[in-house]
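Exam prep: given the inputs below (a chain plus zinc ion), describe the expected output before reading on.
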Amino acid sequence: MTLTVSDIQVRAAEGESLELSARVSAPGARRESFRPWFRYTGVETLTPWGDAFLALFLIPCMYSRENLHIDAPVSKRLLAAVPRIQQTIRNWYKGFSEIEVSAAEAHEREFAIDPPGTACFFSGGVDSWYTLLKHRQTVTHLLLIRGFDITREESDLWETTRGILDKAADALGMRAVTVTTNAKKYIDLGKKACPWGRRYPGRFWRVAHGSGFASTALGLQGTIERLHFPSSVHPSLFYPFGSHPDLDPLWSTENLDIVHAADDPNRTGKIRSQLADSPVALENLRVCLENRPGKLNCCRCEKCGRTMVSLRLAGVLDKAPTFPEPLDLRRLRRLYVPPDIHYAFYVEMLREAREAGDEELADAIESALGYRFTLDHALGLARQTIGSAMLSILPARLAPFVKRFAGPISRDVIAESTHLVKKRQ
Ligand SMILES: [Zn+2]
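Solution:
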């Protein structure tokens, strides 16, 4: 059985945007065909090639055991990388099969881009700001996406993040590009709304988000010739993840080099080396996943807490006005850190706190890691256990209340890391 991508079109769309779309026919789909699209603002040209759609559907097809045919020209370099992409995903995750991938034409046509553009994904977080500042001499375009981590329904969050994008672009003399897309609902096999494919028993987006992001940039061939993926995991900390230095460059074509730095420092190092000297970054830093109305960062969730620890270690927490509350060490002691990549993050921060002589902070991190017993940590652990039991029996609409009670990291992270990911090779 084969999923087929055809009728790729570029047209002018709403709000002076340019739209790249395709018709997709999938075996066993609830609809005869569906049409994923990407709408770009801030660019003058898109190319009706199949590269973006190959990147979008390869990994979902591997899990659904469907071959993939792109009825359009596809980059020869990208097609040649498909076996290695498949091997990498199959080495990391359980349940993915090798499939056949074909295209109407394998081409090596090259654009002459004048002047050559370099893009960087931008969401306003530490990884984005670090990558952008590190490459500020060459980056020309900042790329913000609506429809992936920011959903199309989250208008307030979109406007806020869009405002940060514009400030960053203005301050650094770069061009802001936005991409709005409906593609996630057609590739997120973990969601019931996906109209085709085999259901994935976890967060499929963790596997497929990197290729999703790459697909948005592949639509920009002819405008940019290089794309920097912000690094999220240091390669020394092996962690299967949809965006990874071993995977992201494989989505490159003759016209677009995709780069994911393999030597970036950890979160504290990123803040110390780039953000600490950039008022525009510190004044507009946004990492929070809670999206509380009127707040760029809630200062309470795990990601806010972890970032505030790094800002404190880098000596600039008081220069980051988007974190208006003080770092709550009692909350940190109560934190339950699951035995996955988060654990490695906190072990590293513990070492840094000890080296900096910040004993108060080091003691709180030790408690969160469970190195020694504290009543705060025991209570936090009990709340997590009760909370995760409640999550499994209560209606989904009550989940936000349970999560508020249970604390910032729920136990499904552990389930995913033990059941779906293969052991280190
Ligand atoms: Zn937060």
